[in-house]
Amino acid sequence: MTIDEKFMKKAIHQARRAAALGEIPIGCVIVCDGKVIARGFNQRLHKHSTLAHAELEAIDRASRKLGDWRLEGCTMYVTLEPCQMCSGALVQSRIDRVVIGTMNPKAGCAGSLLNILQMPQFNHQVEITYGVCEKECSAVLTDFFADLRVRVKEEKAARKAAETASLVRMRSEAGTEPPASADPSEKKPQKSEENP
Amino acid sequence: MTIDEKFMKKAIHQARRAAALGEIPIGCVIVCDGKVIARGFNQRLHKHSTLAHAELEAIDRASRKLGDWRLEGCTMYVTLEPCQMCSGALVQSRIDRVVIGTMNPKAGCAGSLLNILQMPQFNHQVEITYGVCEKECSAVLTDFFADLRVRVKEEKAARKAAETASLVRMRSEAGTEPPASADPSEKKPQKSEENP
Q1: Which of the 8 DSSP states describes residue B101?
Q2: Which of B48, B86, B109 sits opposite A63 (nearest CB)?
Q3: What is the pTM for the complete model shown?
Q4: Which of A49, A60, A89 sits opposite B85 (nearest CB)?
């Protein structure tokens, strides 16, 4: 196992922590002088915050740990290609290098839609290594979404069964005739019949 | 005074709070339903964090206040054009509109180097209004940097004066002859003279 793979496995562990909370599983670690100095995983739903992406959580912790907003000499290992906000934060942090597990063709900004990390017009460019533990990083996400689809389908089926049971109970309580709201085809009495 | 000018004045007040701490004066407010729901000013040095830009501080507070990572229906008023990180965060937050005081031609990403707020390839685009209270927003920054230059010059002069005073004192303590470190031209005794 290479050094990059060793640290990416730690990022994958962080992604699994997000999945355990029902959050989209993205994780990362920041390494300085061969040691992990900060960890982060996506917690956007639980923290009710736009900023609670894995990368920003880790950048904030690393800055506080080093006592400096600059993360020079550091490397981030992240399971999914960063978005526009996180790529921007990585440039702002002056981090040396970012190692990416799998790409995000629909929203990634480190090579897919844009490459914010390496734009010559900015005052800092970040070295990038792509595809470290790619299959495993990708599987964490596809497994999560497959489970989510099954769960949503099961919840939908359970909701439908509960609605049917409720309708049957209402019809039973009302005798043979279902309530008006349950059967819109029921014929309403005509005004002319009420007031001949 | 227009409504936009009224809220931009509040953002300028935030920028002045940053200046009072010696931070680059950038301030912003987030408005929802005609009320300010969050404020922020640059505190990158004091918080030792890459993320402590005015915009991110305010986005975080607004998300927590609304209990949702989405800032739909909100407008940000910010004194300086946002950087790549803050522009990315604004897109991520799904904010409706951003009102900008003055542009940042060297690093701005809402129209200068890039326009991250309005890229069609992203899943959200932000309405932008430029140049509200532009002169005042610009003056807050130019005044700050002018003061900083004066301060740096004064500190340099004070340091030089202290060094000169120290050198004079050392020479005075050593009689007429200055110490070796202070005058490298001083002639060292020759070995041959010590051990003839």
Answers
A1: E
A2: B48
A3: 0.81
A4: A89
Query: Known catalytic residues of B?
Result: 55
Assigned token pair, B118: 């309005």
User: For residue B186, what pLDDT band results from cuts at 50, 70 and 90?
Assistant: very low
Alpha-carbon gap: A31 to the closest alpha carbon of chain B (Å): 17
Residues for chain A: how many in total?
196
Check residue B108 and give its pLDDT.
97
Which of B47, B51, B119 to substitute to test the interface with A, most A CBs within 10 Å?
Answer: B51
CA gap A168, A159 in Å, rounded: 14
Query: Is the pLDDT at B166 greater than 90, yes or no?
Result: no
Amino acid letter, B129: T
Phi, psi of B65 (to 5 degrees): -65, -45
What are the DSSP calls for B167-180, one per residue?
HHHHHHHTTTSPPT
| Contacts of residue A22, Cβ cutoff 8 Å, sequence gap at least 6 | A45
* Distance of alpha carbon A177 from alpha carbon A67, whole angstroms: 74
CA distance B71 to chain A (A): 9
pLDDT at B167 over 80: yes
Q: What is the DSSP letter of A101?
A: E
What per-residue string of b and e applies to A112-131 under the rule 16 or more CB within 10 Å gives b? ebbbbbbbeebebebebeee
Q: Which residue has the tokens 């964490």?
A: A140
